[in-house]
Write a structure and sequence with these properties.
This protein has 182 residues and is an alpha+beta fold. The chain has 2 domains: 10-72, 2,3-Dihydroxybiphenyl 1,2-Dioxygenase, domain 1 (Roll); 98-171, 2,3-Dihydroxybiphenyl 1,2-Dioxygenase, domain 1. Helix content is 21%, strand content 30%. Helix 1 (17-28) runs antiparallel to helix 3. The radius of gyration is 18 Å and the shape is globular. The chain starts with 9 loop residues before the first strand and ends in a 17-residue tail after the last helix.
Amino acid sequence: MTRQTAFAHLTLCVPDVDVAADFYVGALGFAAADGFVSSGPSMDQLTGIDGCQLRARFLRKDSLYVELTAYLDADGTPCGRHPHELPRAAHDYGVAHLAFLVADLDATTELVVTHGGQVLDDTRVRMPTRVSEPIDLVFCTDPFGNRMELIRHADEQAAATHARWMKAGNLGWPDPGTPPTS
């Protein structure tokens, strides 16, 4: 039987795709493709946004593809909008956050800040486990307020405990070939 659907990518709308790409490459180790530009009646129809030019770049981290998009007026001014206060709250509708497994939480949060993001220090928690070191978690934002969760598992036992707690182990989360452990 032929597969009917497959995940393609997640899109984040930002005011500047190059600044966003620099953040995700520098802070989180994504690879970036060259950008592309598209405009015209077909793009207007597809996006439902008349007269805007779309600038976009694809990024990849492991098996995750992220498309960064910016919509620009004819004069090159971003025409995107902030529909609510930033940074987004965890319970806002839409994409709530991206999550990344990291080997060193402190080093990664330093990179987030260095590349223009923000660490939401009041969200930092250590989730105790019975079989391993605690699981460390914290939320951050990219330079445009998109939330991301950083997760550090001390070892495979911590990762398995976290997967059982989230009831996601039967789905293969976290992918044993992907997560770094310290």
